[in-house]
Each structure stands twice: as C-alpha cells, then as structure tokens.
Here is the input.
Amino acid sequence: MRLLIVRLSALGDVVHTLPLAAALRRAFPDGAIDWVVDERNADLLTLVPVLDRVVVLRTRSRPALPALAECRRTLRRRGYDVALDAQGLGKSALVARLSGAARVVGFATPFLRERWARWLYTERVDPGRPRHVVARNLGLGAALGVDAPAWSFPIRTASSEAPARTRARLGLGAATALGGGRFALLNPNAAWASKRWPAERFAAVASWLRRTHRLPSAVLWGPGDEARAAAVADASDGAASVAPPTGLRDLVALARAAAVMVSGDTGPLHVAAAVGTPVVGLYGPSDPSRNGPWSPGDVVVSRFAACRCRPARGGAGGSDAGSSDRMVRVCRSTARCLDDIPVEDVTAAVDRRLRSVLPDA
Here is the structure.
C-alpha cells in the first residue's frame, strides 16, 4: 500500500495532521507513507519517523506552474494507491489529484475551506461532528478502515544548539536532572494581528515569572517578528531576552527544553503541545475547542465566546460543521477580543500549569 498525505501549511495545521500519519503507520506497518508539504514547513516533517518520504512543494521560491509540474513528476514516480487531502483547499486537492493516485480522498463539502476542491476527489468523507481539528483529520482514515482513538504526535528529538544558546542569553547554567537551567518561552507573534496579545502584557508576565517562579523568559520570533520580540524583552525589566534565531528543528528542541510556553493560537504553540511542553494558550478569534491544546493539564485563557471577529453564521446549510474554519482573518472592530484578557488571568493560568508539573513551583 502506497499512501500520500497532502497538508501543505500552515505550521499548526501540519502538527494537527501528524496523528493521521501515525494512525496510518499503525494500520499499514509495511506500507509507504509520503507527505507533500510547503517548503516553509518541510523541516518539521524531517523529524517525523513514521514517514517514508517528504515531498516539498516549492511554490514560494519558484513560479507556481513549474513547481507544480516538478511535484507532479516526483509523485507520479511513486505510484500511490491513495492520496488523502487533509487541507481542503483547491491547491491541496489539485496536488492530490496530480499525484496520479487511484483514489483521491478529501472531506465532504461542509468541511472544505474551498468548496470547489470536492470536484477533484474520487471520494469524500464526512468525519462527523468532532470539535477538535485533530479528530476531524483522523476522520479521513475512515476511507481506509483506520480507527485512531488515541492521538500520537511522532516527533523525534532534534539536534540543536538553540537550548544551550538560549540558556547562555538568559545567564543560566546547563540543564540538570534536578531542574537547573529552566526557562519559560513566550511567543507574542502570530500571522493574524487579531491573535497577538499586547507585547507589554507579555512583558508583565515575564516579570511575574521571574518574581514568582524564578524563571527567566526567552521570547520567540520569526521572520519579521524580531521588533515585537524585542519590545517584550525591553519592557520586562530584565526578566526576558530575545531568543536566538530558530528554524523549525530548533523550535522543537527549544520547546522540549522549556518549563512552560505562553502563546496565542499559532504554530509554535502547537509544536510545543505536540512535544509535551506545558502550555498556556491565549485564544480570541479562534475556537480553543477546535484547535486548542489537547493535554488535560494544559490551560487556555479564551475570549472566543464574546469575540467580535466570530462569523455571523455557521457552515453550509446553517450547520456549525465548518463554522470554526470560517474565522475572520482581519478584525475590523476597533476593540480586539484578546485585549480583554488581563495580565492577572494569564499569570493565574501559568501558575496553575506550572504547579501541576514543577513540585517546587
């Protein structure tokens, strides 16, 4: 059996599709399982041992048509039996179809982000009414008779100097079995402005973490985000420092080393949750029941129920099947829902999460 998963982006959504790959590997231990992914997210999949091959779609660094043609040639040589489109976009459905797989499986219409994608599938799956996107993605496995009651995120440890470099920036010694060298990760950035909690409040959390739990904080950043990370560090009264530059492999290593991560709903939060880092998630325009952390111990501070950016109606036919996927990316309200979250709510959530994992917290 040769299987292809298509999930191109974004980082958090790629993480949320990993349990599908793990379930397929359990069901087909001798099969070939490949994955097509956008070039920005490819490094994460190099750490996923259940995959045989990662095929990179390079439409960001190359013109789209040559990139698609190159991807098609690579996929056709593999001779897939089934391609599973876990994204539900026209682009991802096209890639699945171009693979030449005998069966091209995607979601039923209410669960698609672009409805015209359905015309490229040979089979459409209704995953039922699971709230969390991980459970929804696992629903695709039903087309192959695959059931996955347990979620697994197979990400192996990355070799990286990022944790040591971060500890050096924070003035910490090496990590020890007794808990030395601990630090917190703060991620104030997100692709959507409406998912960014104010930088000065992250700084206040950093000051509280040092004062209350003796934890310095490293502030994550990606391309174009360094100024915002620096603003957090500058306002923290020395409690936080900007983290060193990190690729995805570095992010995995850094998350594994952290005592806790505080972040909005964005890729680094989901990476941390997948590798078992204690997390506190800040949610405004997105639904934590759909794409929040899944560990029973993790804590969410949410204003989703009152968010002004929520869609007025649900999915197709008035159902709520796709309503959480139809968030308003650009909030036009003058008051953002995340701004309603006070520092005290977040520090209380962090305190609760830390005390559940650190005996001396």
Q: What stands out?
A: Residues 312-324 have pLDDT under 50 and may be disordered. The longest helix spans residues 11-27. The CA atoms of residues 11 and 41 lie 6 Å apart. The chain has twelve helices and twelve strands.
